[in-house]
Design brief:
- Helices cover about 40% and strands about 15% of the residues.
- By secondary structure, it is an alpha/beta fold.
- It has three domains: about 80 residues; about 120 residues, 3 Solenoid (UDP N-Acetylglucosamine Acyltransferase, domain 1); about 25 residues, no CATH class.
- The strands form three sheets. It has a five-stranded parallel sheet with strand order 2-5-8-11-13, with no helix packed on it.
- The N and C termini lie far apart (about 100 Å).
Length: about 240
């Protein structure tokens, strides 16, 4: 509301009060009394506006805090599965039993199924095979697949991914298979993963996958014992002769 509008409204209110005898109507005090009445009438309105603005600011602040909290929680959820603490403890106990218990084609597959791993028929799981503790439900082992001892399969990297061991695939002992977040790593049907292989990408069906076997690198002239420093060992190495 402009100043002219404020004065016009104030004069009307002042006239009504003069007619009721509440205000003395003298020429010298009209403008002063009009301003006083204007301020009295407008102040509550401005107070209400200021109060509403303050409330809006508080609401915006609360919503911002809630949004930030939600984003933090969502960020944490990307790394932690949505399971109760009891369920996670039970899964870890089942995992220990499946790693060291007997029955590569019976008990171990059964225990991993109870954990949430999708295990097909006629599957072999060797001793001390590690199938993701936190995201067992993200691993699938199809019919006839074989996973040899001490293989590690991890289905998450800063967020869950997915690992599929295809039908009749073979994973050699000591292999490590790691899936990236939001990615599916597939060991194709009938593929063979050589022992101690590191796999971080999908393998085509019916493919032999692995690195070259270890080979001689140098001649050792001083054994690397507890009394030999690393520097002494390195300087003692000699080239191989054909």
């Amino acid at each position: 509301m402009t100043e002219a509008g404020d004065l016009s409204e104030a004069k009307r209110v002042l006239l009504e009060k003069c007619l009721r005898g509440e205000v003395s109507f003298t020429a010298g005090r009209v403008r002063q009394q009009a301003r006083e009445v204007s301020l009295q009438e407008v102040a509550p309105i401005r107070g209400e506006v200021d109060s509403a603005a303050t409330k809006n600011e508080k609401i915006v602040s609360v919503l911002s805090c809630a949004q930030a909290t939600s984003e933090r929680r969502n960020g944490a959820d990307r790394h932690t599965p949505n399971k109760s603490a009891i369920r996670r403890v039970i899964n870890r106990i089942l995992h220990l039993l499946s790693r060291f218990g007997p029955g590569g084609s019976t008990l171990r597959p059964f225990l991993h199924r109870m954990r949430g791993v999708r295990v097909g028929k006629h599957v072999w799981i060797g001793d001390d095979v590690y199938l993701d503790n936190e995201f067992p439900q993200c691993i699938e082992i199809q019919d006839g697949a074989m996973i040899e001892l001490r293989t590690t399969i991890i289905a998450h990297t800063h967020g869950e991914g997915r690992v599929v061991i295809g039908k009749d695939a073979f994973v050699g002992a000591g292999s490590v298979i790691v899936a990236a977040a939001k990615r599916t790593l597939v060991i194709g049907e009938g593929s063979v993963i050589m022992a101690s292989s590191m796999v971080n990408r999908s393998v085509a069906p019916y493919t032999l996958y692995g690195s070259d076997c270890a080979k001689p690198l140098a001649k050792v002239t001083k054994p690397f014992t507890g009394t030999t420093s690393y520097e002494e060992f390195i300087t003692s190495l000699r080239p191989l002769r054909d």
